Amino acid sequence: MKKIISTTKAPAPIGPYNQAVLTGNTLYTSGQIALHPETGELVLDDIKTETKQVMENMKAVLEAANMTFENVIKTSIFISDMNNFSQINEVYGQYFNDDTAPARETVEVANLPKFVNVEISMIAVK
Question: Member of which family (predicted)?
């Protein structure tokens, strides 16, 4: 059985999907981009600020499922320019403990929704 996870503290979906789906003890999140949840505007000041907004959006989705970043077992990071990797990684790393950090993949892609620079999705387990 699946339970739809939704919060107003993260951007509303812009298509036929949900912010996250909980099945059993496993949470599958949709990818988050740097949309500010209150204004709906993109936060693209610089790559670090953009990444922080993505992670704050993800934090809100996790909290809506009564989870934290400690519950995350896998992340997928999609970036439009691998030259931004170190700055994205620096911000991303602030949300995880190195000893318990999840498995991860980082992939450079041609384009992302709304032509943002970074999108992140996660899988978490209670």
Answer: Belongs to the RutC family.
Q: How far are the Cα atoms of 24, 66, 74 from residue 57, in angstroms, in the given order?
A: 23, 14, 17
Look up tokens 């170190």; give the residue: 86
The 10s digit of each residue's pLDDT in 49-108 is 999 999 999 999 999 999 999 999 999 999 999 999 999 999 999 999 999 999 999 999
Handedness of CA 14, 34, 51, 79 (dihedral sign): positive
What's this model's pTM, rounded to 2 decimal places? 0.97
Residue written as tokens 């790393």? 93
Burial 39-63 (b: 16+ CB within 10 A, else e): eeebbeeebeebbbbbbbbbbbbbe
